[in-house]
Specification:
By secondary structure, the chain is of the alpha/beta class. It has helices at 38-45, 65-81, 92-103, 119-152, 160-170, 175-197, 206-244, 247-253, 258-295, 301-311, 314-340, 346-378, and strands at residues 8-16, 19-28, 52-63, 84-86. It has a 4-stranded mixed β-sheet, with helices on one face.
Length: 380
């Protein structure tokens, strides 16, 4: 005769309308035929007045994790409906394991709290976060200032070859995109102005419009936005990746200042190149206006350039170059700041890059407004 198959049995009794007892018998072990949890759950669901559920394991001859799995399912159902569960009659080991399983805290990442946070609490949390971010920014600016002072004293620790590399990346390699955007922007300015000025027979003043707008503000602003999306994002991604790979921590371990070794060369390169790129963008913008003036307004190149020369002044040129130098500092610092603040994951690098671009563009707009108001106040 073959070996008898082990069986674990389970019965349900209902002494009263508000109580249920689940009886276990036989061996509840791996390899045995075991009942499922559907039958007792069906009985429990059919009892609208149910208040108490108890377990009886007096006839249980053996058990392992199969019994625990069954009990966890029943216990989860009872907890969900607020029904009292009595486990005094279970084996002591099973009670301990169930208590240990219930004591494991739930991971907050796996389940979001469905309750909405109060409005004032959200405002307070955002305020605290903003205050902490402001402190980090001030600390970063202080460290950058100390790095510049170390540079002036000749004690800054960075490789000179890095500066030339960043000069090339933020200068020569940026010329194609700066050329394209500046010419197109000059074309747009001239075209919009031409439509209005033609009505008064004042086509020649398109040269004044494009020249002053490009040289004084727009050349620097457009170059700043281009470099924020190109170079500022690159700085954030580079430093963020180094943060993920713990290279910045390694520099600190060796006693090398990340601010001097990583941030200072990038800040110097972009600050030096931005005025040159701005001057180049001004020329390309004026060239774009010249194309519209020749092709649409029938102006001669000499007349257009003569009017542009007559309307421009050194004050406009210096204001535009000052804009660009300020933008160079802003873009380099925001890119490096977001890179240094990056988390330790790949997604954090993407977030840092996006934040660097957005922060730089907002800062450029704010700086433009401040400088414009200051120039108007000084009557420049």
């Amino acid at each position: 005769m073959g070996e008898a198959v082990m069986k674990g049995k389970m019965t349900v009794s209902c002494p009263t309308d508000d109580s249920v007892i689940i009886h276990f018998s036989g061996k509840w072990q791996t390899g045995a035929e075991l009942p499922g949890a559907d039958e007792p759950l069906g009985v429990l669901a059919s009892k609208p007045l149910l208040r108490t559920v108890a377990f009886d394991a007096s006839e249980l001859t053996g058990w392992d994790s199969n019994l625990l799995t069954f009990l966890i399912k029943i216990n989860a159902y009872l907890e969900k409906r607020g029904i009292d569960c009595r486990m005094d009659a279970l084996p002591e080991g099973a009670r301990r394991l169930l208590k240990l399983a219930a004591a494991v805290p739930e991971h907050q990442e796996t389940k979001k709290d469905a309750r909405s946070e109060p409005f004032l609490s959200r405002i307070g949390g955002r305020t605290i976060t903003l205050a902490g971010s402001a402190g980090e920014v001030l600390a970063f600016l202080g460290e950058a200032t100390m790095a510049l002072l170390a540079l002036f004293r000749g004690r800054a620790s960075f490789r000179r070859s890095d500066v030339f590399l960043f000069l090339q990346e933020s200068g020569v390699q940026a010329l194609p995109i700066v050329s394209l955007i500046s010419i197109l922007f000059g074309l747009i300015l001239a075209f919009v102005g031409a439509i209005q000025l033609q009505a008064f027979g004042a086509q020649i003043y398109v040269a004044d419009l494009v020249g002053i707008a490009m040289v004084r503000v727009m050349g620097a602003v457009m170059t700043g936005i281009i470099m924020a999306g190109r170079t500022g994002a690159s700085y954030a991604a580079q430093l963020g990746t180094m943060q993920v790979n713990e290279e910045i921590d390694a520099l600190k371990t060796f006693g090398v200042s990340p601010m001097e070794f990583l941030v200072l060369p990038r800040m110097l390169a972009l600050t030096l190149m931005m005025p040159l790129l701005c001057a180049y963008a001004d020329i390309m913008g004026i060239l774009g206006g010249l194309i519209v003036g020749i092709g649409m307004l029938d102006l001669s190149p000499m007349a257009y350039l003569t009017e542009t020369k007559a309307t421009l002044s050194l004050a406009n040129l210096w204001i535009g170059l000052f804009h660009s130098a300020v933008f160079g500092v802003i873009i380099s610092l925001t890119g490096c700041l977001r890179g240094m603040q990056c988390g330790r994951s790949a997604s954090a690098v993407g977030s840092a890059t996006t934040s660097a671009v957005v922060t730089a563009i907002v800062a450029i707009v704010v700086a433009t407004a401040v400088i414009t108001v200051a120039c108007n106040f000084l009557r420049i």
